[in-house]
Design brief:
The chain is α/β, with parallel strands linked by helices and 264 residues long. Helix 3 crosses helix 4. The protein is 22% helix and 25% strand. The two termini are 19 Å apart.
């Protein structure tokens, strides 16, 4: 373990959902924040690769068993015995936090500022899905929702050379999104406009936590296109399975936090 003096931490939409026990597994008393930067103040005798005074970051996953089939192949985020902030331990909205050193990451000097804290969890979650998708430069991508997860997903996708069209109900965000690299902006609640987008996209990444008419978005995928759900809608996602099959062979994907190697 290492003792970290917290310097910066984030508060995101997910923290509000944990506070409200949205998924039924919050442990009270609850201290929020699933990502933080700080300074190593003390370390256990078996800690390797970290020194007192190092500037480090932490994410949602606190530890894992290191012995199961997933841990052995470097996919610790799927360990059934893992511990995560908010359920198994207090979050980072604190002066100090104790963490398994194997899940603590050195932060490069150029990233040691408050706005980069969100890369640790809010950024790593869409990054994991984008990496899994295998998306390549030139792909036509739809991005549904541009809140905390979405604006980071947009920057990752545009840096990969994708042509990204954003779907949002917030017209006021359009100028900012164009600055971040969006090629187009479409009102996510305008049914008539959405229908015109059928079979245009290789990938759709949804970071939305809202309830939408998902059949319209499935139809936007080209044959063999994929939709990834990164945000978690409050209700069940329903659509006809024929949309995946007929003349299409489309695919659905999900996301979760990064492995240690992906975070690095």
């Amino acid at each position: 373990d290492v003792l970290i003096a917290v310097k910066y931490c984030s508060l995101a939409g997910g923290d509000i959902l944990f506070i409200d026990n949205r998924w039924g597994d919050t442990s009270y008393p609850y201290i929020p924040s699933s990502e933080a930067f700080g300074i190593v103040k003390e370390k256990g005798e078996n800690v390797k690769g970290l020194e007192i005074g190092d500037f480090v970051g932490i994410s949602y996953q606190m530890t894992s068993c290191m012995q199961c089939e997933y841990c052995k192949i470097g996919k610790e985020q799927f360990c059934r015995k893992q511990k995560v902030l908010g359920i198994n331990g207090f979050g980072a909205l604190a002066d100090y936090i104790i963490f398994d050193s194997r899940f603590v990451y050195k932060i490069p000097k150029e990233l040691q500022t408050p706005e980069h804290v969100s890369l640790m969890c809010s950024g790593s979650t869409p990054f994991s899905a984008i990496k899994k998708s295998g998306v390549k430069a030139g792909a036509k991508v739809g991005l549904v929702g541009v809140g905390n997860l979405g604006h980071l997903a947009l920057q990752i996708l545009t840096k990969l050379g994708c042509e990204v069209t954003v779907f949002s109900h917030s017209k006021t965000k359009e100028t900012q999104l164009n600055t971040l690299g969006a090629r187009g902006f479409i009102n996510s609640t305008d049914r008539a406009v959405l229908k015109k987008e059928e079979s245009k996209y290789d990938y759709i990444f949804s970071t939305s936590s809202g309830t939408l008419e998902w059949e319209l978005y499935i139809k936007m995928l080209k044959p063999q296109g994929t939709i990834f759900f990164i945000g978690l809608p409050p209700d069940k996602v329903c659509f006809s399975v024929e949309l995946l099959a007929d003349y299409a062979q489309r695919t659905i994907g999900g996301s979760y936090s990064c492995s240690r190697s992906e975070l690095k």
